[in-house]
């Protein structure tokens, strides 16, 4: 089943939407439509999966770099201290909470 959500076509005229649907109607009549659509969907999913994997790899490298940084190591030592660590952790959460508002 194909879905044509209105939100993705906000601002389109009725004529533009009708033209899109007519194009799909023509494509549906093609004998290899299902195979073409399946191939296009798989290519899209693979491309986005590769991009997501690359982003995850970059983030992992960034985190690994941060972990080796002196500031990160000092932060870990401070946070591991029983009383001071909990105060620092609470303050960090409070500051992050403010930033997201």
What does this structure look like?
- The protein is mainly α and 101 residues long.
- The protein folds into two domains: 58 residues; 32 residues, no CATH class.
- Helices cover 79% and strands 0% of the residues.
- It contains four helices and no strands.
- Helix 3 crosses helix 4.
- The mean pLDDT is 87.
Share of helix, binned = over 70%
pLDDT averaged residue by residue? 87
Shape: elongated
Contiguous low-pLDDT stretches (5 residues minimum) are none
Secondary structure class reads mainly alpha
Secondary-structure blueprint:
Layout: H1 14-28, H2 33-68, H3 70-80, H4 82-99
Helix pairs in contact: 3-4
Concise structural overview:
With 101 residues, this protein is mostly helical. It has helices at 14-28, 33-68, 70-80, 82-99.
Characteristics of this structure?
101 residues, mainly alpha, 2 domains, 4 helices
């Amino acid at each position: 089943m194909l879905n044509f959500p209105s939100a993705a076509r906000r601002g389109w005229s009725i004529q533009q939407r009708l033209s899109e649907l007519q194009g799909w109607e023509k494509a549906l009549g093609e004998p290899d439509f299902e195979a073409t659509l399946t191939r296009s969907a798989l290519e899209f999913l693979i491309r986005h999966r590769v991009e997501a994997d690359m982003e995850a790899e970059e983030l992992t490298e960034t985190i690994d770099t941060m972990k080796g940084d002196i500031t990160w190591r000092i932060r870990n030592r401070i946070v591991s201290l029983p009383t001071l660590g909990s105060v620092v952790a609470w303050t960090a959460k409070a500051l992050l909470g403010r930033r997201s508002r």
